[in-house]
Each structure stands twice: as structure tokens, then as C-alpha cells.
Amino acid sequence: MKTVTCDIRDLPLSERSALERIVGHQLRETTQIIVNVVDVDVSPAAPIITPLEPDVPELWKIYDGLSEEEIETLDQVLRQRANLTRDFE
Q1: How is residue 77 annotated by DSSP?
Q2: In whole angstroms, how large is the CA radius of gyration of the chain?
């Protein structure tokens, strides 16, 4: 990173005008401009993966150890029980 500092009063009129267009307003003679020049990392960012907390409640692990078929069967039963339109006799 490089930092450039300049006093407005020391700049030629063309450079001062260019800076005023960048900042969007007129600059006073007593103004000091400080610019940080940095190189941008253009490499793709690695995805942020957060592991599950080790103290996850056991209730959250209801599908652990089940096959896809067993999960599907369990899901069908749960959906049927959640159907509140069935008759109770």
C-alpha cells in the first residue's frame, strides 16, 4: 500500500479541478488530500465454511445413520401426520 499526501494550495489548477470532480465539491486552500493506493486481490475468494457446533442438540441429529430410503419413508409418515384435514374417529 502506498499513501500519497498533498496540500491543495500546492497543486496546479488542472490537478485541483480533477480532485474536485472526484470528491464532488470545491476544495479549500487549507485542505489536504490523503490517498491510499492498494493492489486489489483478484483471486477468487475461498468459500467460508463453518462447522457445526460440537455441542449440537441430539434432536438436530434425527437423520444420522439413516439411508436415503429410510429418510424418505420417515418424511412421508411425518407429512401424513401433519395433514390436519384427516378425520379422527
Answers
A1: H
A2: 32
